[in-house]
Amino acid sequence: MAEPQGVQRGLQDVVALESRICFIDGRQGRLIYQGYDIRDLAARSTFEEVAYLLWYGRLPNATQLEELKGRFGTVRALPPPLVDQIDRMPIEAHPMDILRTAVSALAGFEPEETRPGASSIGGAQRLTAVLPSILAQFHRRRKGLPLVRARPELSQAAYLLYAVLDREPTELETRAMDVALILHADHELNASTFAARVTASTLSDLYSAVTSAVGTLKGPLHGGANERVMELLDEIGTPERVEEIVHGKLSRHERIMGFGHRVYKVEDPRATILREWSRKVGENKGDLHYYELLRRVEEVVHREKGLYPNVDLYSGSVYSLLGFPADLFTPIFAASRVAGWTAHVLEEYQDLRLIRPTAKYVGAVDLPYVPIGQRS
Ligand code: ACO
Question: What is the C-alpha separation between 230 and 320, in angstroms, rounded?
Answer without folding.
Answer: 9
